[in-house]
Design goal:
heterotetramer, C: alpha/beta, Rossmann fold, TATA-Binding Protein, 2 domains, six-stranded antiparallel sheet, 22% strand, Molybdopterin synthase sulfur carrier subunit (chains A, B), nucleotide-binding (chains A, B)
Chain lengths: 77, 77, 339, 339
Amino acid sequence: MNKLLFFAHLKDEAGKESITIDAAGKNVAELKAFVAEQHGMTKLDSAMTAINEEFAEDSDIIQEGDTIAFIPPVSGG
Amino acid sequence: MNKLLFFAHLKDEAGKESITIDAAGKNVAELKAFVAEQHGMTKLDSAMTAINEEFAEDSDIIQEGDTIAFIPPVSGG
Amino acid sequence: MTERYSRQTLFPPIGQAGQEKIGMKHVLMIGAGALGSGNAEVMVRAGVGKLTIVDRDYIEESNLQRQQLYTEEDVYEKLPKAAAAEKRLRAINSNVTIRAVIADATPDLLDELVQDVDLILDSTDNFETRMAINDISQKHHIPWIYGACVGSFGMSLTIIPGKTPCLHCLLKKIPIQGMTCDTGGIIAPAVQMVIAHQAAEALKILVEDWDAVRTTFTSFDLWRNQYTNIKITKAKDEGCLSCGEARTYPFLQNENLMKTTVLCGRDTVQVRPPTKQNLDLSHLSKQMQLLGYPMKGNPYLLSVDMESQRIVIFNDGRALIHGTKDLAQAKAIYNRLLG
Amino acid sequence: MTERYSRQTLFPPIGQAGQEKIGMKHVLMIGAGALGSGNAEVMVRAGVGKLTIVDRDYIEESNLQRQQLYTEEDVYEKLPKAAAAEKRLRAINSNVTIRAVIADATPDLLDELVQDVDLILDSTDNFETRMAINDISQKHHIPWIYGACVGSFGMSLTIIPGKTPCLHCLLKKIPIQGMTCDTGGIIAPAVQMVIAHQAAEALKILVEDWDAVRTTFTSFDLWRNQYTNIKITKAKDEGCLSCGEARTYPFLQNENLMKTTVLCGRDTVQVRPPTKQNLDLSHLSKQMQLLGYPMKGNPYLLSVDMESQRIVIFNDGRALIHGTKDLAQAKAIYNRLLG
């Protein structure tokens, strides 16, 4: 299984801070599309993604047990 | 084995951010006394101690695999 | 003035040698809003040699809740932020050379200002300018520090050309979020937390303590009690057009900039983002509702009445700003609403 | 003044309802130094109803590097910090009722000031005052927020009587560290980071968003890139003399306070900590050396020449402050050197 963490306003959109699903085998882009659809999230595709606290590309494959964090870049200042 | 983390100026006194020793079976007070002597540290006894990111008392016993952090309370402001 | 910096020279990683280095450095600050006023104050109190501060905006009442250099009097006088910042910073430390530039931080202006600069501090409110800063940083080999915040959330990243990935490596395209301080709100502690990270990194760079420089992307949410550091070393992309081998500095090129045009014979400016967007207008309209502006919409556009302007936003990201002929003002309004 | 707070009411956990609550609350700030000036500025910009700010000190040149309300002019005028803070805070937000109290925050004074207070913000520089704040908080059932920093290191903890452990549960005795901003130095970003945490917690408490309040002890080091949150729930001690069932509020009692006495016929004050210490004088002398003060010592005592005072520190923690008859000044000097 995989733990998915939602940061900042993604947490509000997802309705909770984390969910646990089986994402092994999917790449990051596929996982984003899947989660966005399942949870009606509109802002996930522009989020930065980290696998086990390391920056991940869209093509990186999720392994069993990985923790995935979604962090939305913001522009305010 | 146990990982010991030193925060702030304790890191400078210890000469490194972390060390790994076998501390299982010792309580916190014994561990502090042992490390203070081994590494010539003068300020360890007033440090707060956390075992696995949870506050620990002097009498708490270290288990195999526990991570112990020493955090010096400071008064500046 | 050694007494002045005594608590900073007592800090071993700075010391007397570090203080002398700080006093010889020139920092370029882009933006004099929340992050800009706070970062500028730390740099000036720390005794940086020279600070250049660039901002196109003037002070409004809604700035006072978080923009620490400004007072009620500055609002009444409608002072430009860069000018008001300069005035206060001089009263804080008369030893620092301060230059206020009241202008839009376009790529051309950045290219001109950056000549003898040691560090660029990002305190802007939009990704278009940040991507231009990122290209300028690579082109002139000058470190820069990204910082941003919305709500109780914020982030920071230190970019050292030739050493770390750049912002373009991490963000392949400019995100248009529809989530800025003007739509999602902002609390001052989130601003302070970003400043803490940016200013600490700035001091490390000014004293040339390169080993201490943070190599992770930091983000946090103070209300939700979240904090994380992401390793980014492997994000460095040799094909990156900003920092890779075949670099073109795309965000310094005209065709990739936001286009602003005064519409002929009308008191209206058209703003067009560099690439077509697919905005979620229903989400945007909810945010505008929270702001309390009168608003109408249909599936193709959203029309918002602000004080003296009406803004019509299309779902491809294009907008018409009615009630102005000022290109910089129109772009500022656009960035405030759409980031 | 709704426009003034618009970016804060747009933040959903505050909103219009939260803003109205903030406007009705009274915050007591102990200390107007680095943390005090920064925390006070956030509270006043956020629109708190009333702020009482207590400080015994006046502004010196070495404060300017990190104490954000003060200017060079305040140094020339040698203004008391509380008075200078009040002046600047009024210029920032004339809607907030500000009361400056120029006095030593003794237990008696705290007991008097705390009457209609909703929150106490700790911005002091010593553990003696913090432990008194902790007892006052329990006695009157008022939340308080601990914050402290030295060098690039800092920490914060939110204490809610009846709900969380108190500071006395965590620190069984008052640590005397010989490590204060006057000996270990301090950089402004560490101050800002503590303020970010304290002020965010303060806003949560003022809007009564109790679920959002942080339940961990936060500490960080910005130069060493460290950050940690420690769970403290199980530290609550039913036998604690400050918050337990048989509480005595020991730090409000005279015999547990630092003793200051003017020595008969001499321009000298003796300062004696409540319990005997075992100071590492050789370590202390190294720190004094860094400060550049002329100094002599032997295994029993250390003698330090500051500007117009000579301080003799014994290894049991007792000190003689020569060159003053002012008890509060002597205590302030002692706390600055020994925390």
